[in-house]
UniProtKB/TrEMBL annotation:
Catalyzed reaction equations: an NDP-alpha-D-glucose + D-fructose = a ribonucleoside 5'-diphosphate + sucrose + H(+)
EC assignment: 2.4.1.13
Domain Sucrose synthase EPBD per the UniProt entry, residue ranges: 146-234
Natural source organism: Floridaenema evergladense BLCC-F167
Gene3D superfamilies, sorted: 1.20.120.1230, 3.10.450.330, Glycogen Phosphorylase B
Name of this chain's protein: Sucrose synthase
Residue span, Sucrose synthase first GT-B domain: 257-549
GO molecular function: sucrose synthase activity
Family membership noted in the UniProt record: Belongs to the glycosyltransferase 1 family.
InterPro entries in the record: Glyco_trans_1 (IPR001296), Sucrose_synth_GT-B1 (IPR000368), Sucrose_synthase_pln/cyn (IPR012820), SUS_EPBD (IPR056736), SUS_N (IPR056735)
Length: 803
């Protein structure tokens, strides 16, 4: 970047830069974001008749395209430059452009405080960088999110550097393995790593001639005499393979061998999935609109984790001990459950043997609040006591400590931290959606937003849990570090200010191996291709098609003048981020779309009086206003109702029967489960380019990426698709089939759960080897919890008590 800056200053482009800055000043503003900067530069290039290459390829063009913020002060001009992913630089420039200096990024925090008249000469600084100094790191930013491979390579290097130390460490790890009081793998007869290796060689000789399929029970007593307990395999061939892997790991270590060996170690039996606020139930109550995707995710993960753990326990030869996996979804019990089962303490998860929803109530600080559902922004005062109560309930139901705790969303991740730190077990975090990057300037103006959103508690909780986690699961690479043009969700936590509260100078280490991209799958029991007719119900299909296109209902708005037009379908909760009103406006602005298509919307509500919060009410009203403004009543159907999964899957397929399309018009989407559901159903899908769809859809091949801020451009892209379908009668089917195969091949729950358990096991290995280094971090996190988070949560509680 230094060379680019110098090239601008030492050429006639310096004059162009001065003109650009003058254009920005003319707006009367002093803070500019990337889109504003790029637009101003594009306008300048056009007005000054610059050649085409100048915008992208000139030194100034490169500088501007790398710039994400420009701040104008009387004394200086500040550039926040991002020359590559996960790397940001701050440059301070004199007004006459004669002097450029690179500053530490934290200097920008004081400047931002000054912009909102909140500067303090002394403020608390949070810095997590020292806690990662001796940890392995990802060396290439392109490999961020592949932490499992980094751990394997790092542990492999330790084996090769100090094999004796590693052998003894491995013995210590294995001799600690047990299920409750049942010893696994090795017993007290084996006194050291050296003795373990010698006994493995004897065990291999002992079983070398046994038939491959001979059950473990036939020779377990002979292995036990050598110091080995169950867990090595269920047949002679499986036991031989595991012993051979161990021997090869010591004699000729390789990362692939380490991965294969660790994956076979039985160390995860009880798993807790935490989804606190999500109105968690099955079929008739899959979350509130704001959490429906999360609840579906957690239920599918629970079912598939149980399946994977059952198979692993069987292959390890532990069925003979009566060991079975236990998977528990921990959530809150809601007394006023509105006719659902959310007031039941225990509910078995369908299609499982031993997976349950365990509901624990919030303590009754204020029964008007805690007896009812609480929106996700208000839940913070109740999480500490919930964690304490849930700990006792979990131990009682599971009969012992869990081996793995997985948090979901900010509140679930904080509870995961509280439980994992007390129980000394492995902690995994899944954000699903981090609110900070979704609400522009939410940290800078947190005090103005505090009454409605309470971001001070939430962002502090995020910092605590993401640094406490042993590993973090994301659904996409960009969720961590974005794209060359956009900052990632986790990246946004690396350096930011909360004026009058604290500065975060190093909030999270993006290069830590704790970050792992593990994509979810789709529940093909409900969501499957439209042409898989043998699995479809004629009765449900008829009901859904009448609901979508024909029947009158109090929960349906709009009558279609021509129900045979191709449908444009969207399914989402009503909020400004999901942007259904933007899609309606896009449709309303395009006469050609209205002539050729109908717009079908499915949400959970139809009227503002049904809204749970002011934002939802505003967005419902905006959608009604747009329908009225563009007079869309003859070509729009808006269903405001909750549908069970069996019917929801049929909605996608019914739209596909009519050769329709699915549009996901969100301003930002961390991943997008509905995108997967639409694609597996066979719907050509148009999805926002801002977020996880970038890694789901191959643009132009298995779907299309759209810019939801460009309404006319999106309409044109859809019209172009319709034209191609008219020109080529096979085009719709071809794209449909590519969408189906894309999901089936790359996004399935079997791959997901296998990888999650592999990461959990290797992180257990790593935590044992580096166990001394986490104590200082734990103390730091506890200080943040008690000194910052808890006082912020108590303020919210005081507000609730006044209601």
């Amino acid at each position: 970047m230094y060379e680019t800056v110098q090239a601008v200053l030492n050429s006639e482009q310096k004059t162009d830069l001065q003109q650009l800055i003058n254009s920005l000043k003319a707006s009367g503003k002093n803070y500019f974001l990337r889109n504003e900067i790029l637009q101003t530069f594009a306008d300048y290039c056009q007005e000054s008749e610059k050649p085409n290459y100048f915008y992208h390829s000139s030194s100034l063009g490169q500088l501007v395209n790398y710039t994400h913020e420009i701040i104008l002060e009387d004394n200086y001009i500040w550039f926040l430059v991002r020359p590559r992913i996960a790397s940001q630089q701050v440059w301070r420039i004199s007004p006459d452009l004669s002097n450029w200096e690179q500053e530490e990024q934290k200097v920008l925090l004081d400047l931002r405080d000054r912009l909102v008249n909140s500067y303090q000469p002394r403020i608390l600084e949070l810095d997590f960088a020292p806690f990662y100094e001796n940890s392995p790191v990802v060396n290439d930013a392109r490999n961020i999110g592949q932490g499992l491979a980094v751990w394997h390579r790092h542990l492999h290097s330790q084996i090769t550097t100090n094999p004796n130390y590693w052998l003894e460490s491995l013995w210590e790890i294995l001799q600690r393995h047990q299920y409750d009081d049942i010893p696994l793998l090795i017993n007290e007869q084996i006194k050291s790593g050296t003795e373990l290796l010698a006994q493995v060689k004897q065990a291999l000789n002992l079983i070398s001639e046994r038939p491959a399929n001979e059950p473990y029970e036939k020779f377990n007593s002979e292995l036990q005499a050598l110091g080995f307990e169950p867990g090595w395999g269920n047949t002679a061939s499986r036991v031989r393979e595991t012993f051979a892997l161990f021997q090869r790991l010591i004699d000729n270590p390789d990362p692939a061998i380490l991965e294969a060996f660790v994956a076979r170690i039985p160390s995860v039996f009880r798993v807790v999935l935490i989804s606190v606020h999500g109105w968690v139930g099955q079929e008739e109550v899959l979350g509130r609109p704001e959490t429906a995707g999360q609840v579906v995710y957690v239920l599918n993960q629970a079912r598939n984790l149980e399946n994977r753990l059952t198979e692993e326990i069987k292959q390890a030869g532990l069925e003979c001990l009566g060991i079975k996996p236990q998977v528990t979804i921990l959530t809150r019990l809601i007394p006023n459950c509105e006719g659902t089962k959310c007031n039941l303490r225990l509910e078995k998860i369908t299609d499982t043997e031993n997976a349950w929803i365990l509901r624990v109530p919030f303590r009754e600080f204020n029964s008007k609040v805690t007896q009812n559902w609480i929106r996700k922004f208000e839940i913070w005062p109740y999480l500490e006591t919930f964690a304490l109560d849930a700990e006792q309930e979990l131990l009682q139901e599971m009969g012992g400590k869990p081996n793995l705790i997985i948090g979901n969303y900010s509140d679930g991740n904080l509870v995961a931290f509280l439980l994992a730190s007390r129980l000394k077990v492995t902690q995994c975090n899944i954000a699903h959606s981090l609110e900070k990057p979704k609400y522009l300037f939410s940290n800078l103006y947190w005090q103005d937003l505090e009454e409605e959103y309470h971001f001070s508690a939430q962002f502090t909780a995020d910092l605590i849990s993401m640094n406490a986690a042993d590993f973090i699961i994301t659904s996409s690479f960009q969720e961590i570090v974005g794209t060359p043009d956009t900052i990632g969700q986790y990246e946004s936590y690396n350096c930011f200010t909360m004026p009058h509260l604290y500065h975060v100078v190093h909030g999270v280490n993006l290069f830590s191996p704790k970050f792992n991209v593990v994509v979810p799958g789709v529940d093909e029991k409900f969501f499957f291709p439209y042409n898989q007719t043998e699995n479809r119900s004629n009765e449900i299909t008829k009901k859904i098609k009448e609901l979508l296109f024909i029947s009158e209902d109090s929960q349906v708005l709009g009558h279609l003048e021509n129900a045979d037009k191709q449908p444009i379908f969207a399914l989402a909760p009503i909020n400004s981020i999901k942007n259904l009103a933007g899609l309606a406006e896009c449709f309303g602005m395009s006469k050609e779309l209205q002539e050729r298509c109908n717009l079908i919307l499915v949400t959970s509500k139809l009227h503002s009086y049904e809204a749970n919060n002011p934002e939802e009410a505003r967005e419902i009203e905006r959608l009604h206003e747009i329908i009225q403004q563009y007079q869309l009543y003859g070509c729009i159907r808006w269903l405001g109702m909750r549908l069970p999964n069996a019917e929801l899957g049929e909605v996608y397929r019914s739209i596909a029967d009519a050769q329709g399309i699915f549009v996901h018009f969100a301003r930002f989407e961390a991943f997008g489960m509905t995108i997967l559901e639409a694609m597996i159903s066979g719907l050509p899908t148009f999805a926002t380019q801002f977020g996880g769809a970038l890694e789901i859809i191959q643009d132009g091949e298995s779907g299309f990426l759209i810019n939801p801020t460009d309404l006319l451009g999106t309409a044109e892209k859809i019209v172009n698709f319709l034209d191609r379908c008219t020109e080529n009668s096979q085009y719709w089917e071809q794209l449909s089939e590519k969408a189906i195969q894309r999901v089936r091949n790359e996004f399935n729950w079997e791959l997901h759960t296998t990888k999650v358990l592999s990461i959990a096991k290797i992180s257990q290995f790593w935590n044992y080897i580096s166990r001394d280094s986490k104590e200082a971090l734990q103390r730091y996190l506890e200080a943040l919890f008690f000194l910052i988070y808890k006082p912020r949560a108590e303020i919210i509680l005081e507000q609730h008590q006044k209601r």
